Amino acid sequence: MASTRPVPWVSPLLCLAVLAGGAYYALVDTGPSLQIAAFSALLLLLIGIDAAERRLPAAVLLLTQTGLYVAVNALDDSGISRALFVLVPFTAYFTLGRRAAIVLGTACVAALPVLFTLRVPGWQTRAEHVSDVVMFALGIVLAITMAAVAVREREARVRLEGIMHEVEALSAAQERNRLAREIHDSLGHHLTAIAVQLEKADAFADLDPSGAREAVGNARWSADRALTEVRQSVRALGQRPFLLTDALTDLIDHLDGPTITLDVTGDEEGRPLTSLTALYRAAQEALTNACRHSGATNVRLTLAYEDTGATLTIDDDGQGFPAHEDAEGFGLRGMRDRIALLDGSLDLASSPAGTAISIRVPW
Q1: Shortest CA distance to 269 belongs to which of 245, 237, 252?
Q2: What is the mean pLDDT of the chain?
Q3: How far apart are CA 24 and CA 310, in angstroms?
Q4: Across 37-80, where does the E strand assignment appear?
């Protein structure tokens, strides 16, 4: 069972060190005896109790350990076991809190001069005893400091884990939004185009057979294009670089309705794929709206590649719509979100005389 302390190895390690040092001193000084055996047994018992700390209430554990520290010191003639008392504030910090640790540490430091006063007359003039008090006080301070650092490190790790979970949740939400935009901008556009072309083919099947066949061909192209984009997005199997100019030209050639023109300036070679893809999705959405909803007869696309970014403008002479975000559908909102992720900008102006959309993305 895991320990509740961030550094559970400190107490057993110190007990083992005291056991080794105290037993060696006793063996060299007096030889094997029952006192050495009792001294060793108590230290081993402390290690066992420490291993079972989660099965005992905090206050009971601390009182039991402190009592055993006193007993071990009574059996130790070397004075090495006084080091065990640094574990009192150290353990208390984790179980009872910072204030309790400071109070108990202060009590331990104050108890040593009292003990010397009772047992060693004139100890204040003996360098070794004064040094013992100073070193013991320093050990108490270091123990409390180490406990504080360990607690803060554990709290920081817990906070970090919480932040990682939040980041994971946000990343998942962002990915869901990205997929939703991708489905709407790609499949949604092509499915809309297929529906329009098939409606046209059905309407003109008898009146204009050649026009109906052309509409069916365009619908088939949209279906093939949708399948290709799905494969590229899901499987990342695109076999050739994405060229925005070529993609827009291909898209325009297979759209029915208004007359669409494309003017391109600058060079797209070496530009970021994410920016080019975002402009293409924006053009898809804008052209779908212009062809299906605006009643436009002419649409003009202007694409300019520059050193710092690219600008795409789509103008149509349709009937327009209220130019405020409440009137925008999912497509335009998705377009805004996609461009915002690239630190770009989207400006929309619409009136009964037509609609103009200007999109800027930086490199």
Answers
A1: 245
A2: 82
A3: 80
A4: none
CA distance 72 to 104: 19
Place of tokens 């005893």: 129
Distance between CA 181 and CA 340 in Å, rounded?
13
Amino acid identity of residue 88, one-letter, is: V
Q: Which residue, among 59, 57, 24, 64, has the nearest Cα to 40 in the 3D structure? A: 24
Could you tell me if 91 and 62 are in contact, meaning their C-beta atoms sit under 8 angstroms apart? yes
Q: Give the span between the Cα atoms of 135 and 142, in whole angstroms.
A: 10
What is the pTM (predicted TM-score) of this model? 0.45
Q: How many CB atoms lie within 10 A of CB 358?
A: 15
| Lookup result for tokens 């004075």 | 79
- As a whole number of angstroms, the distance between CA 196 and CA 189 comes to 11
The pLDDT value given to residue 95? 84
- Residues 261-290 pLDDT 10s: 999 999 888 888 888 888 988 888 888 788
Q: Give dist(CA 357, CA 175) in Å, integer.
A: 26
* Chain center to CA of 23: 52
Name the 3-class secondary structure at 346. strand
What tens digit of pLDDT does each residue of 23-60 get? 888 888 777 788 889 989 999 998 888 877 667 787 88
Dist CA 273 CA 259 (whole Å): 28
